[in-house]
Design a protein that fits this description.
13% strand; alpha/beta; D-Maltodextrin-Binding Protein, domain 2; 469 residues; single chain; 18 helices; six-stranded mixed beta sheet
Length: 469
């Protein structure tokens, strides 16, 4: 089996050397990541399974493609790419994009129609649990053959049911110019980025920036932590990944039916740091959006912005130059976090609808192969959409994104990447209840015990409901 860690290290170093991602399931407009965008989860059952699963024929003659896209921030690029494919091949390709935070409900509604999507997405093992009866086995497909490692694919009972098309990274994006200005000040306790490698240092820097924001010409250390659907995924999913990651790491596990919440105090202190040293008061975050946060950072009004490589498209061509973009790991005060890298993984897996007409299945497989093999497809994914992809066909297509370079630098330095364990969260409802508790706590209308209850008790309840026999 090809070694995924080795491939990641080599690809990230190559990206840095070439001087050249973006897109998690969630930029400011995304449905959830990680980014982002609300990940497809197993909060309720998929449409009833149809009677039989006909194998795809070798011909796509008369077939068509309907792709239900998960990432709103790349909606226009997918439409343009589909039109290009249709012009080149004569095969009809329709692309629809779910609105922010609605992918799972949209997918369920579309799958119930006679012209259902032939190509759709799941967020990982939990999302696959809802849709595995609708996932065609792509074992013999070209797009699977182009995958750099079997470790990336969603494989169950020997069937390749999902193939990731983007590898993404998130952390705390920072403005190097403003941070260097802070380092030069007499009131700065921390004097270089090398010292900023743990929670205590991050707390010191953030609080000193907040106390001297007028001198530094900013509105706050952190961007606003908006808690509407365009932004809350950054905290109820991506930030919540950190306490899950460290608990899993301690136990040597990759999933659980009952989270203990060992690192919830750490979760609290990073959340407190965000909301108390920001461009707005904690009581205002219910009205703040992902677009607000992106704008605050892009215009130089805040120094720190928790988001991922996909956020580059929202930042570039504004007040922050590419050379001033960096990314820090999300430090929460865990032992050994000085050796922690960025959060790297995928929650974007292509699936082919096994209930579709055989000609449509083959047409969809042909389209997917064209996307990852043709010059037009590779140019679109790498340079227009800004993706780092897990395919062997992209060696010369490395995206020009400084946030990718930041991840490459951590990889080269031997830092341990934080895995994406939020794909094991038991349901979308679990995330929503947690997000509500975080908001109530921030506004002062709830306490942290409610967050703990949502995290721990809610996990056990939602897991049991999702896995009921």
């Amino acid at each position: 089996m090809r070694n995924v860690k080795r491939w990641l290290a080599l690809s990230m170093v190559a990206a840095m050397a070439a001087g050249t991602l973006a897109g998690c399931g969630g930029s400011s407009s995304a449905a959830e990541s990680a980014a982002p965008a609300s990940s497809a989860a197993a909060e309720s059952s998929a449409p009833a399974e149809s009677e039989a699963e006909a194998p795809a024929e070798a011909s796509a003659e008369g077939g068509k493609v309907y792709y239900l896209n998960f990432k709103p921030e790349q909606a226009d690029q997918w439409v343009a790419l589909a039109e290009k494919y249709t012009e080149e091949t004569g095969v009809q390709v329709d692309v629809q994009t779910a609105a922010s935070g609605t992918y799972e409900s949209t997918l369920k509604a579309e799958m119930a129609k006679s012209d259902a999507p032939t190509m759709f997405q799941v967020n990982g093992p939990v999302g696959l649990a809802s849709w595995k009866d609708y996932c065609y086995d792509m074992s013999g497909s070209k797009v699977y053959a182009d995958l750099a490692s079997d470790d990336y694919a969603l494989i169950e009972d020997g069937k390749v049911q999902g193939i990731p098309y983007v590898i993404e990274t998130y952390g705390i994006i920072y403005n190097k110019a403003i941070l260097n200005d802070y380092f030069s000040k007499d009131y700065a306790t921390i004097k270089s980025i090398d010292e900023l490698n743990n929670f205590a240092a991050l707390k010191t820097v953030a609080e000193e920036i907040q106390a001297n924001k007028d001198d530094l010409g900013v509105e706050g250390a952190f961007t606003s932590s908006g808690m509407d659907s365009s932004s809350d995924w950054r905290f109820k999913t991506h930030l919540a990944n950190l306490p899950i990651y460290y608990e899993y790491k301690d136990k040597g596990i990759g999933a659980t039916d009952a989270i203990e919440g060992t690192y919830l105090d750490n979760y609290k202190q990073i959340w407190d740091l965000y909301i108390n040293n920001a461009t707005c008061e904690p009581s205002m975050i219910s009205s703040k959006t992902g677009e607000d946060a992106a704008s605050e950072f892009a215009l130089g009004e805040a120094v720190f912005y928790q988001n991922g490589t996909w956020a580059y498209n929202d930042i570039k061509d504004n007040e922050v130059a590419d050379e001033d973009l960096g990314m820090l790991p999300i430090y929460i005060g865990a032992t050994g976090e000085e050796n922690q890298g960025l959060c790297t993984g995928s929650e974007n897996y292509w699936c082919v609808n096994s209930k579709a007409d055989p000609a449509d299945i083959q047409a969809t497989l042909d389209f997917m192969a064209w996307v990852v093999e043709s010059d037009a497809g590779r140019e679109a994914l790498a340079n227009e959409m800004g993706f780092v992809t897990p395919f062997t066909t992209f060696d010369e297509y490395l995206p020009a994104n400084p946030l990718v370079q930041a991840n490459a630098e951590y990889t080269k330095a031997g830092k341990t990447a934080v895995s994406w364990n939020f794909t094991t969260m038991p349901s979308e409802n679990w995330k929503n209840v947690l997000g509500s508790a975080l908001l109530e706590y921030a506004q002062g209308t709830g306490d942290w015990d409610a967050v703990k209850t949502a995290f721990v008790d809610g996990w056990a309840t939602e897991y049991a409901a999702a896995n009921a026999q």
